[in-house]
Amino acid sequence: MQRALFAALSGAIFGLGLVISGMTDTTKVQGWLDVFGDWDPTLAFVMGGAILPMAVAWRIAARARISMLGTPLPTLGVQRLDPGLIWGSVLFGAGWALAGLCPGPALASLGFGGPGGAVFLVAMLIAMLAAAPLRRRLSSRPLVP
Amino acid sequence: MIQTDWLWGLAGGLLIGGAGALFLLINGRVMGASGIIGALADGSAGAGWKENTAFLVGLIAMPMLLLPVFPSQTHLTENLAQVAIAGALVGFGTRLANGCTSGHGVCGISRLSLRGIVATVIYILAGGVMMATLRHGWELI
Fold first, then answer.
1. What is the pLDDT of residues B114-126, one digit of tens each?
2. Contacts B81 to A, Cβ<8 Å
3. Closest CA to B105 of A51, A131, A144
4. Is B38 in CB contact (< 8 Å) with chain A?
5. For helices B4-25 and A42-64, what crossing angle results, to 10°?
6. Alpha helices, H only, B26-113
């Protein structure tokens, strides 16, 4: 119950951040990727702002080893660059530009994204299911981001 | 010249990173949106399904509750075929790569993970190439 409560709180703060940063607005994301057009650097501010508290959190995590709810904290495993990481990121980047949505903002905008937002999410979920067998074959060991 | 949009971006970014910090230090989990929903979709979440579902409830409900004070629009293209192809590429790609903008970008770069940095560079480059083709492709012909 506690785990679910704090997960919901994290999700809510994540959603708040995505909305006020403008990342649920596809024109801002596409503007960031459009370097040959009217380039919009907002995403760099969002990314920079998000990395700061996370970098502090990783420092604390390295010393604490165990989370406040008692589970082991994730450690940086073997850093292997595999074909799944490379080609998956190529496909993801192409889709990201095509609509201006990545998974976080696609979920956060479900309440106001209209039918288009729902179409994106359904297609994303089906593709995630379809990717499962190939994913298992590519990585025999669990890989952390 | 600093624009207001950039400051909103920075403030929102700090909240996104704060959310990731809470999820890490309290729940002991990496806050990656594609992993949280993907593990639910393919059943690999196991006993973590409640936690993942609760995260998604918060993520979807918060922007809805904010709508009266903070009206948002996605300005998504009306071409639904394009939207569906984009969604499929994002879903398939993030699962193969084991992460997206939040997992590899925010949580990976902040711990100087090689995989996170490489993935982020690649998806931004691929996105840039796709965007150039979409908006400026005709100029090259």
1. 999 999 999 999 9
2. none
3. A51
4. yes
5. 20
6. 33-41, 49-66, 80-97, 109
> What pTM value is reported for the model?
0.95
CA atoms within 13 A on the CB side of A59: 6
Distance (Å) from the alpha carbon of B47 to chain A's nearest alpha carbon = 12
Which string of DSSP letters, residue by residue, matches B106-131? Answer: IIIHTTT-HHHHHHHHHHHHHHHHHH
The domain segmentation of chain A, as residue ranges, is 2-139
B9/A contact by beta carbon, under 8 A: yes
Mutate to test the interface with A, among B83, B117, B118 (most CBs of A within 10 A): B83
Each residue's pLDDT tens digit, A24-64: 999 999 999 999 999 999 999 999 999 999 999 999 999 99
Look at the alpha carbons of B114, B120, B123, B124 in this order and tell me if their dihedral is positive or negative. negative
- Of B20, B83, B95, nearest to A50 by CB-CB distance is B20
